[in-house]
Amino acid sequence: MIQPEAADPVPESNASPMQTEAPLYDVLVVGAGIAGLSLAAAAAREGRTVLLIAARDTHPREFRAEKFSSSEMGVLDRLGLGTGARAVATPLHTVIEGRWGRLIKRMASQEFAFHYPELVDAVRAALPRGVTSVTGRVAATATGADVQMLTLADGRRFAGRLLVVATGLGEGLQRELGFERRLVSQGNTLVYGFNTAFTYALLAGEQLIWSAEAGGDGVAYLTLFPLGTQIRANLFTYWPRGGTAAEAFLADPTGTMRRLMPGLARAYGTIEPVGAIQQRPIDLVEITNPVRDGVVVIGDAFCTTCPAYGTGIRKALSDVTVLASLLPAWFATPGMGAAKIGSYYKHPKKVAADQLSVGVSLRLRRMTMGRDLVSRFLSLRSTVYRRGQQAVVDAAAKLRRAAPAASGTPAANP
Ligand SMILES: Cc1cc2nc3c(=O)[nH]c(=O)nc-3n(C[C@H](O)[C@H](O)[C@H](O)COP(=O)(O)OP(=O)(O)OC[C@H]3O[C@@H](n4cnc5c(N)ncnc54)[C@H](O)[C@@H]3O)c2cc1C
C-alpha cells in the first residue's frame, strides 16, 4: 500500500469532516485512468488540495485506446501532462484512407499512437505535487452536501468536499454510491488489436484507415499505424463476441481480412498478424441518476462510447475541462449540494459532447450493419450513372460522325 508522499501538501481544513480526524481535501478523485488523472492535475493547478485514490500502482496492461488527436494532447499539454504523454507516444501526421476497395485520399492529420497503460502511467508520473496519491480500494462511502468520506479496505479514511468518480468500467463504487447504469447497447462493438508484419512499409507518421468493402458486413474499418517499432492494427467490428464471424476471424485472421478487404490486399498485400490478437467487446452504458450531493462522475464511468468513433478520451477530457471550469465557483461558496453538481451535467459543452459521442456511436453501428444494402444502392447508383455517361458519350460520337457527312452534303442552291 502506498502512503501519501511526505512532501505532499497538507490540506487546509476549513470545515469539520464529519467528526473524524481525517484532514479535509478539496477534491477526492477515485480512479487513475486518463479522466481521473487529468482532473486531479487540473484541480491541483487551480490550487485545490487533491487526493487521488488508484486501485493499483500501475494501470492494468489491458487493450484500450491506442490513438488520439492533437487536440487531446493539447489538453494534456495545458495541464502540464503533455511531456510525459509524448514520451510514450508515436506522432502520426498523415491519414491514407481507403474506401469502396480503393484508395480515395491522403490528408494531413495530427494524431498520436500509444499503448493506453503506458500513456496512463506516464501521465500519472507527471502529476503536479499538489496531488497526493494513495493506492487502495474504496470499501465504504458516506456522502452529503458538505463532506464526503471514503473508507478504504485497509481502514484508512479520507474526507473531501467534492468526490469525483472516475472509475471507468468498474461498477463497484458506482453501485456503492447508488448510481444506476442503463445498458444502451449491449456488445455494441468488438475490437481487435494486434501487431502486424505489414508488407507495405508505412512511412514514419503515416496511418492507413481502410473501410470494409461490400460483403464486409459488420466491420467498420481496419486501421494500421506505427506504434514504437511495430506496425499496429485495430479492427473495429460489430460482430457478436463468440459468434460465427468472430470465431472465423480468430481461426484465420489473414484470410478473413483478405476476404473482407480485397482492395486492401490488392493495393498493399496481405495483412499478417504477429503474436497474440487482443479482443475486447464494448457495451454502451450510461448513468441515469447522476445528480446528487457532493459527487460527480466523469469519463467512461459516466458513459461509454463506441471506440470505432475514437472519441472516448476526447469525451473524458471534455468532462475534465467542463468540471475544472466550474470548480472555482463551487469552492467559492460553502457546500457541495446537488444544485452545484447538476450544473456540471447540464453544461452545454458536456451535453453536446455526450450527445455527439453516444449518437454517433449508435449511428455508426446502424450504418455499418446496413452496409450491404447501402453498398448495393451505391453500386447500382454508380452503374446507372456510368451507363448514363456512356450513353451521352455515344450520342456525342454519333453526332460527330454524322456532322462531316452533313457538312459534305452539297448546299442547296440559293
Ligand atoms: C478496445 C478499446 C479501444 C478504444 N479505442 C479508443 C480510441 O482509439 N480513441 C479513444 O479516444 N478512445 C478509445 N477507447 C475508449 C477509451 O479507452 C476510454 O474512453 C478512456 O480510456 C476512458 O478513460 P477513463 O479514465 O474514464 O477510464 P479508465 O481508463 O478505465 O480509468 C478508470 C480507472 O479507475 C480504476 N478503478 C476502477 N474501479 C476503481 C475503484 N473502485 N477504486 C479505485 N480505482 C478504480 C481502474 O483500474 C482504472 O485505472 C477505446 C476503448 C477500448 C476498450
Automatic annotation (TrEMBL):
Gene3D superfamilies recorded: FAD/NAD(P)-binding domain
EC number: 1.14.13.9
Entry-linked Pfam families: FAD_binding_3
Keyword Oxidoreductase: yes
UniProt keyword Phosphoprotein present: no
Residue intervals of the FAD-binding domain: 25-329
GO molecular function: FAD binding; kynurenine 3-monooxygenase activity
Keywords carried by this UniProt record: Monooxygenase, Oxidoreductase
InterPro entries given in the database record: FAD-bd, FAD/NAD-bd_sf, Flavin-dep_Halogenase_NPB
Alphabetical list of PANTHER family matching this protein: FAD-BINDING DOMAIN-CONTAINING PROTEIN, FAD-BINDING PROTEIN
The protein's name: Kynurenine 3-monooxygenase
Highest classification ranks of the organism: Bacteria, Pseudomonadati, Pseudomonadota, Alphaproteobacteria, Hyphomicrobiales
